Amino acid sequence: MIFLARHGETRWNRLGRKQGQLDSPLTESGLAQARNLAAAVGRLRVDGVFSSPLGRAATTAALCGVAFGMPVVVAAVPR
């Protein structure tokens, strides 16, 4: 099974600002969204948790990784 999830809300999301490869931290609401996601998917059977290196994605993935009891594999971004 492949399960894809988007990161929680960031400061720039709230402002309507585009982020692309730039990074903006999760808001308190975004952290709550990530915790809720982790609680909701923590019962699924998965083989791995993967994330981009951007902080907003890595923070969201880390909370899910804790729920699954496994580390997050951060994907390298080609330059």
Salient structural properties:
two-stranded parallel sheet, mainly alpha, 3 helices, 79 residues, globular, 2 strands, hydrolase
Structural description of this entry:
The chain has 79 residues and is mainly alpha-helical. It has one domain (11-74). Helix content is 42%, strand content 8%. It has a two-stranded parallel ribbon with strand order 1-2. Strand 1 (49-51), helix 3 (55-68) and strand 2 form a beta-alpha-beta unit. Helix 2 (28-41) runs parallel beside helix 3 (55-68). It is globular, with a radius of gyration of 13 Å. The model has no long low-confidence stretch (mean pLDDT 88). InterPro entries: His_Pase_superF_clade-1, His_PPase_superfam, PG/BPGM_mutase_AS, Phosphoglycerate_Mutase. This is Probable phosphoglycerate mutase. Substrate binds at residues 6-13, 56.
State the distance separating the first and last CA atoms. 29 Å
Number of strands: 2
**Tally of structural domains:** 1
What does the radius of gyration come to? 13 Å
Beta-strand content estimate = 5-15%
> Overall pLDDT, averaged?
88
Keywords: Hydrolase
GO molecular function: fructose-2,6-bisphosphate 2-phosphatase activity
Binding site for substrate: 6-13, 56
Pfam families: His_Phos_1
Write the layout of secondary structure elements.
Layout: H1 11-15, H2 28-41, E1 49-51, H3 55-68, E2 72-74
Parallel strand pairs: 1-2
